[in-house]
Design brief:
Number of helices: 14
CATH architecture of the largest domain: 3-Layer(aba) Sandwich
Distance between the termini: 36 Å
Number of strands: 15
Number of domains: 2
Oligomer: single chain
Helix content: 25-40%
Largest sheet: 7 strands, mixed
Shape: globular
CATH superfamily of the largest domain: Type I PLP-dependent aspartate aminotransferase-like (Major domain)
Bound molecules: pyridoxal-5'-phosphate
CATH topology of the largest domain: Aspartate Aminotransferase, domain 2
Radius of gyration: 22 Å
Strand order of the largest sheet: 4-10-9-8-7-5-6
Structural class: alpha/beta
Length: about 425
């Protein structure tokens, strides 16, 4: 810890929330150097949907490495890449009647967002990208231009342009239809807003406070895109790869986005890789036009290919549904019994509870003292956000849910004691 405080930049963040030095992790548990065990309800911000060091993926990875499999190849063809492309197409795309070509940009999510924005502009010859309030799409300048949070957006130290923010589903209350609102700008050539190259959204605003888009809203946004010649981009970097209960988070709406972005849990193992899925007719890139040294990391292909096996078994979908319902029930109970916890948000295995930001930080710290790693979300970090591995067993899930309940009890009680004493 001392060496980190001394040598690592002040930009470090998560280590401030969870001050421990970790040395091992298995499934939904992490361990620190003092031998303490933690339950992980953060799961690498959704990069570890199948838990830490998933045994099936580890075996495939170790085998690949011990046979001197290719680790780095730029985008030269490897057997690891061929296997992934084929299995992703067979296991994920075809059964969902989706036809996409696959582009591997740089290894992080924001690289996929940048690639999608470039492509949308190239395809349409338009500049503006419509995004939504509380959106988060990454920390590079292009992604920041479509990100809601002002402190993140101003971090580049220069004006970020080319993005146009519109109200997300529900942002203006129950009485305002935000699709109609957006349409009123698109249909009027004097509205001050140019015809957009694309509309991009998250189905669940993972960093922005867990607001969710309804199926109807998503379908109507898709219809707007078709009507006004804009591409529809779904940023499924955090909500995808099964987090909401289906492989793609938009499956419930039955929409067919022009471009879909995946990253965080795509490799399934925490190895960085990201993917842009694009409709074949949009594939007008010139060779090398969007290049990079680390695109489509081979060890990540190996584990990603193995991870796809989960999506072949109906039992897995059923378990996700049951666990999601249980999370909702437990969180609703906290809302019902605590006046200062106001709302359950999110869906599937990404849900959270809304409270005062100070209380939320206290609950998070108390949970950590009780051995639970859990993140907050939202503009003021006012949402306690649950991201347990999808593979967590019932015992682990119940343990985490009761730590959350007990932490809320402990902290709001002590708040009450301080206030009256
Ligand atoms: C994390 C995230 C990104 C950015 O991914 P990085 O790997 O951090 O660059 C983009 N969009 C969404 C929805 C995310 O959750």
């Amino acid at each position: 810890m001392d060496v980190v405080n001394q040598l690592e930049s002040e930009v470090r963040s998560y280590c401030r929330t969870w001050p421990a030095t970790f040395n091992r992790a298995v499934g939904h548990h992490m361990y620190d150097v003092d031998g303490r065990q933690y339950l992980d309800f953060f799961a690498g911000a959704g990069a570890l949907n199948y838990g830490h060091n998933n045994p099936a993926m580890k075996e495939k990875l170790l085998e690949y490495l011990s046979n001197d499999g290719i680790v780095h190849s730029l985008d030269m063809v490897t057997v690891a890449k061929e296997a992934f492309l084929e299995k992703f197409n067979e296991t994920i795309l075809k059964p969902r009647d989706l036809e996409y070509k696959m582009q591997f940009p740089g290894p992080t999510g924001t690289n996929a967002v940048e690639a999608a924005m470039k492509l949308a502009r190239k395809v349409t010859g338009r500049e503006e990208i419509v995004s939504f309030t509380n959106a988060f799409h990454g920390m590079t300048l292009g992604s920041l231009s479509i990100t809601g949070n002002s402190s993140k957006r101003s971090g580049g130290g220069m004006a970020v342009r080319g993005g146009q923010t519109m109200p997300y589903d529900g942002y203006m209350g129950d009485d305002v239809d935000t699709v109609e609102y957006l349409q009123s700008f698109l249909e009027n050539s004097s509205s001050g807003i140019d015809a957009p190259a694309a509309i991009i959204f998250e189905t669940v605003q993972a960093e922005g406070g867990l607001s969710t888009a309804s199926n109807g809203w998503m379908r109507r946004i898709e219809a707007l895109c078709r009507e006004y010649g804009a591409l529809l981009i779904v940023d499924d970097i955090q909500a995808g790869c099964g987090r909401t209960g289906t492989f793609f988070s938009f499956e419930t709406a039955g929409i067919k986005p022009d471009i879909v972005l995946l990253s965080k849990s795509l490799s399934g193992y925490g190895l960085p890789v990201s993917l842009v899925l694009l409709k074949p007719e949009l594939d007008i890139w010139d060779p090398g036009e969007h290049n990079g040294t680390f695109r489509g990391h081979n060890p990540a292909f190996v584990t990603a290919t193995e991870a796809l096996n989960y999506w072949k078994t109906p039992v897995f979908y059923g378990a996700l549904k049951a666990k999601s319902a249980r999370i909702n029930e437990a969180l609703s109970e906290i809302v019902d019994t605590h006046p200062d916890v106001t709302e359950v948000r999110g869906r599937g295995m990404i849900q959270g509870i809304v409270m005062d930001p100070k209380l939320c930080a206290d609950v998070q710290a108390e949970a950590f003292r009780r051995g639970l790693i859990i993140e907050t979300s939202g503009a003021e970090s006012e949402v306690l956000k649950l991201l347990p591995p999808l593979t967590i067993d019932d015992l682990g899930l119940e343990e985490g849910l009761s730590i959350i309940k007990n932490s809320v009890n402990a902290v709001s009680e002590s708040t009450l004691t301080t206030a009256t004493g």
